[in-house]
Every structure is written in C-alpha cells, then in structure tokens.
Amino acid sequence: MRIDAKKLLKDAQKDYERTWAESAKLVKVKGKYFTLINKKSPHPLFDLIAKTRSIFLEMGFEEVITPLITEECHVYLQYGPEAPVILDRIFYLAGLPRADIGISKEKISEINKIIPHFKEIKQLQHIFRRYKRGEIESDDLTETLVEELGVKEEQATKIISLFPEFQELKPVPTKLTLRSHTTSSWFPILKEMQYQEPLPLQLFSIGPKFRREQRLDVKHLYESWTASMAIMAEEISLEDGQEI
C-alpha cells in the first residue's frame, strides 16, 4: 500500500491533530502480509567492539561507562593552554529557555474560536506560569491542558500553536560539551574512584565520541567510536605503559 505523503503533509499544515488521527486508518489492523526473512548481518563495528572488550577483560581491566557529556573545565584539565584550540572542534550543548507567556484579549478571542465560550483563562495562565517555573515538564504541557482545562487533545495543541513564544525560543549555550576524547571523561571518574576502591585502578571504556569536523568524509565524522583505558597506581613508569 502506497501512502500519499505529500497530501498528508499538506493536510497536517492545516490541522495536524485531525490529520494525525485520521492517518491511523491507513494502517492495516488485521491480516498477515509480511514474514521476516533471514537477512542477518552483524555490523563490523560491533564485532570489533566485542573483540576489544574481550581483550581488555582478559588482561584484567574493569569495564566502566564514561559520561558522553563533559564539562568544559575537564577539557582544560586535559589540554591546558591548548584547550581553546581544541574547543573549536567540540559540540557545545544548549538548552531552550522556558517561554514567558501572556494572554492578551486578542489571544482570548482566538481561543474562543477553538473552544466557544472558553472561561478558564485564569487557569490557563496559571498553567503557563507553572510551566515557566519548571513545575510542568515540556512534554506534559499538552496533557496538563487536557486534564486541568477539560479540553480535547487537538484543542490543547491548537491553543499552544496560538502562542508564537513557543516557536521563537532560541537555544542558550551552556558549558557542557559532547566529549571529543574519552580522556576528558576520566578525570571525574578517577577523582571519585580513588577513594572507593584500592589501587591500582585498571579501567576501560568503549563508546562514541563527537567532533565538529570542518569536513565530512570516510576519515572525518561527527560521531565515531573509541576504546580508552586508564590506570591509576602508586607508581608506574613509561616502560610499564609500553608493555601494557
């Protein structure tokens, strides 16, 4: 069955909730039309990860999960004066501020077109204030409108669409980054674990890292995977490291 995606998109621009509800009719509920065939094929990356994990574990390393999100200060701990240059290749994280929403007479008039004789303006304003203070999660706003105002879900989403403040929010950057090297993630881990377990600490972690590459090709990707190990001991030499 082929779906007219262009028509769905056009209809959704006019009335998203109605189009979303009616599109359910396009899904066959009963009937056996499809059976899985054997197309199994493991990805070579995960074969390599499995092999690498096995090697680390056989050597006596303890596996840990290092955080993907790291503070900017940990990049400075790793690179020192070179950090500002390195930070050019790092993705900084940003968050959207909560909208401060007022309800004008014009907006009340538009709401009444959606819900005739709507009288719960003060309650709606109270909900928006609680949303602004973070007392209502963003993904719970529609549900809160439905439950506390006694409106339908499609009416709640239409009310939200009346306020451009939701669409005009701009991300505000933070000092949090997606790690570009696993090394920076080791600092907070080693800082705490030195007091939790006896030395030596022999740790390894395998996971993704992220770099804001200037170009993308087979050797330069926004996301790649890395295996990293860290050892903390009372004494260790360069020769020890080379042997390991």
Brief descriptors of the model:
244 residues; alpha+beta; three-stranded mixed beta sheet; three-stranded antiparallel beta sheet; 6 strands; extended
How would you portray this structure in words?
The protein has 244 residues and is of the alpha+beta class. 42% of the residues lie in helices and 15% in strands. It contains eleven helices and six strands. The chain has helices at 5-14, 16-22, 44-59, 72-79, 83-86, 105-114, 121-132, 141-149, 153-161, 183-193, 238-243; strands spanning 62-63, 69-71, 92-95, 172-178, 201-210, 223-232. The strands form two sheets. The chain has a three-stranded mixed sheet, with helices on both faces. It has a three-stranded antiparallel sheet with strand order 2-4-3. Helix 7 packs antiparallel against helix 8 and helix 8 (141-149) crosses helix 9 (153-161). It is extended and about 80 Å long. The protein starts with a helix and ends with a helix. The relative contact order is 0.15. The model has no long low-confidence stretch (mean pLDDT 89).
List the helices and strands and how they pair.
Elements lengths: L4 H10 L1 H7 L21 H16 L2 E2 L5 E3 H8 L3 H4 L5 E4 L9 H10 L6 H12 L8 H9 L3 H9 L10 E7 L4 H11 L7 E10 L12 E10 L5 H6 L1
Parallel strand pairs: 1-5
Antiparallel strand pairs: 2-4, 3-4, 5-6
Helix pairs in contact: 1-2, 4-10, 7-8, 8-9
Distance between the termini: 58 Å
Unreliable residue runs? none
* Overall body shape: extended
Q: Compute the number of helices.
A: 11
The helix/strand series, from N terminus to C terminus, equals HHHEEHHEHHHHEHEEH
The largest pleated sheet is described as:
3 strands, mixed
How much is the average pLDDT? 89
| Helix share bin | 40-55%
Please identify the structural class as seen in this structure.
alpha+beta
Radius of gyration: 27 Å
Strand count: 6
Give the strand order, joined by hyphens, for the main sheet. Answer: 1-5-6
Q: Please report which band the strand proportion falls in: under 5%, 5-15%, 15-25%, 25-35%, 35-45% or over 45%.
A: 5-15%
